[in-house]
Amino acid sequence: MKNGIMKKLSMAIVVMVAMSGYGIAKNNPVSPNPTVASDTVKLIDIAGKQRMLSQRIAKDYLYAGEGVASAKANKQIKESLEELLSAHKVLVESINDPEIKNLLAFVEMSSEDFKTTASEPFNLDNAQLVLDLSESMLEGSQYVVDSLKEKVKINESKIVGRAGKQRMLAQRIAKYYIAYQAGIKDKNTVDQMKAAVKAFGESHDILMKNTENTPEINRKLNEIDRLWKIVYKFYLNIEKGGLPLIVFNTTDTITKKMNEITKLYVELYK
């Protein structure tokens, strides 16, 4: 069992390395050209969404295993894995460096490993492994986002990155909430969930105060604000539990709305 886990975690490390900042094409660096900058902002959104997908797959595996919203969770796992691979293809096609392309080929293998584990019968060992894989894939995707923002060097890319990260944080909250209910009741589970709640709240305030928001963006942010002020207290009661379905549905709603907002920011900063 240990050898199997180590093999899977080793593959996850490849994801982190392959999707790191070094994955940006060396032979075709991002330039200040407005068209290139616009394309890069779009890539930030794509890479940023990979962060959310890594968390949603793990969350859905745990929810399905616990028999809570299992039909929707199983459907989301399939859709998320397909979207993950599709987005990965776009990122690969944006890179010219042959060596990096070859390294990124291993990402597909790791994604398959993630897919295999997520489709296995639920038990605590597999649940912990899925959590570990999701953390490695999250870290790798974050490196891509950070590298793209550094290359394009425009403040607008930070807003797109921040808005996109909110999608991930919403799914991360639900992931750790259900992980605790499933039996992974260590201090790290509680700390990570509460840290995600704190990070979401802080970024939400920053986005609300962004002076370049369009009326439509402000309207959608206000919709989230009204919901967030009520539900974040439910999330913080992770140790008490008892509200897994509410957590599932509200975090999915927030993720969907933040995805719409992120797209609006991408359009705004073309």
SSE order, one letter for each helix or strand: HHHHHHHHH
Provide the helix percentage. Answer: over 70%
Mean pLDDT: 82
Q: What is the CA-based Rg, rounded?
A: 18 Å
Q: Total helix count? A: 9
Let me know the largest β-sheet.
none
**Inertia-based shape:** globular
Low-confidence stretches: 1-32
Proportion of β residues?
Answer: under 5%
Query: What distance lies between the first and last C-alpha atoms, to the nearest angstrom?
Result: 49 Å
How does this model look, in words?
The chain is an all-alpha fold. It has helices spanning 2-18, 34-66, 70-93, 98-118, 124-152, 155-182, 187-208, 215-236, 244-268. Helix 1 (2-18) packs across helix 4 and helix 7 (187-208) runs antiparallel to helix 8 (215-236). The longest helix has 33 residues, at 34-66. The N and C termini lie far apart (49 Å). Residues 1-32 have low confidence and may be disordered.
